[in-house]
Amino acid sequence: FGSERAVENFFKKPIADIRAEMRQVIRDQLMSSQMQNKIVQDVTVTPSEVRQFYRNLPEEEIPTIPTQYEYAQITLRPEISLEEDNRVKAELRELKRRIEEGTSFAAMAVMYSEGPSANIGGEIGFQGRAQLDPEYAAAAFNLKGDRISNVVKSQFGYHIIQLIDRRGDKVNTRHILMTPKISIEAKEQAMNRLDSLANLIRRGEISFADAAARFSNDKNTRNNGGLAINPSTLSSKFTVEQLDGNISKVLSTMRIGEISDPFESIDQESRQPVFKIVKLIDKIDSHKANLQNDYQQLADLFLAQKRQKVLEKWISDKQAQTYIRIDNTYANCNFEFDNWIK
């Protein structure tokens, strides 16, 4: 945007109003999500219920399980030069100076932050320590008033942080995130090192598991043979949609047991560029779900349906007990649930 005035012109309202509106939207979304989770938190399914659910499914409603992959990986993070590291920290220190002299933190976040919350002024909503990167959390929970932290390094890059509010064991902060950029030379070094490693594995001079344990930078996979775990399901199976685009492209061309050439990818935690070689362990072609191979997917489907029914009943009960006023502006909207307008 270039300036605070440009931000105001873009949104056609003052910075203070933009911040207030965005804060309210985030607060409403958090409250809604927390309430829904509370309503359905005790809903569970048993194996016998899942089996009965599957037996009662009409043939045409049995879900099709998309193609799934199991793979192991060796990951290298290219080194960041000291000069690039210092450049980013100096930029953040300069932004901190400008903010302390009166420039809006939120406006600076919109203009300069590389984080996903940049477009709402860097605000991330109320978070507990466990929900935040440890270094970010340590800095955020030590802030008082509207003071701004010194430059903080996390797994995502470098931040400056401002405290907005504190509620019990949670804080609401805004931040500006900047990440050092990887040089072409560092990328080439990582690719060459992985290429040599892949050739050693193919020749049988080292196993993939041993190479992962010795050389991989990925702390989540290096100690279990490089096996990737799906964070959504906690299994080792991934659909194409659950994979980084580059990984899915590579796996789709491989044979079981094959070692890939090096390629660039994105680390799922830090969202930073990394380089990988992968080994395809198994490929499970698309098929109709069955209890033997797809129990967890069927259990998740049944649990979602069961939770939805509980939520719908709760809403229906509250509608009957609560005064509801719908502004005329929204009277003709297609509501997800009926009986809002009486």
Unreliable parts:
none
Could you give the count of β-strands?
Answer: 10
Estimated radius of gyration: 25 Å
Shape: flat
- Just give the CATH class of the domain at 64-80 and 182-288: Alpha Beta
Topology record:
Blueprint: H1 4-11, H2 15-40, H3 47-56, E1 64-65, E2 68-76, H4 82-100, H5 105-112, E3 123-128, H6 134-142, E4 152-154, E5 157-167, E6 170-178, H7 184-202, H8 208-215, E7 238-239, H9 245-252, E8 263-266, E9 273-284, E10 287-288, H10 291-321
Antiparallel strand pairs: 1-10, 2-7, 2-9, 3-6, 4-5, 5-6, 8-9
Helix pairs in contact: 3-10
How would you portray this structure in words?
The chain has 342 residues and is α+β, with helices and mostly antiparallel strands. Among the domains are: 64-80 and 182-288, Chitinase A, domain 3; 81-178, Chitinase A, domain 3. Helices cover 43% and strands 18% of the residues. It contains ten helices and ten strands. It has a four-stranded antiparallel β-sheet, with helices on both faces. Strands 3-6-5-4 form a four-stranded antiparallel β-sheet, sandwiched between helices. The chain has a two-stranded antiparallel ribbon with strand order 1-10. A hairpin with a 2-residue loop joins strand 4 (152-154) and strand 5. The chain is flat and about 70 Å long. The two termini are 46 Å apart. The model has no long low-confidence stretch (mean pLDDT 90).
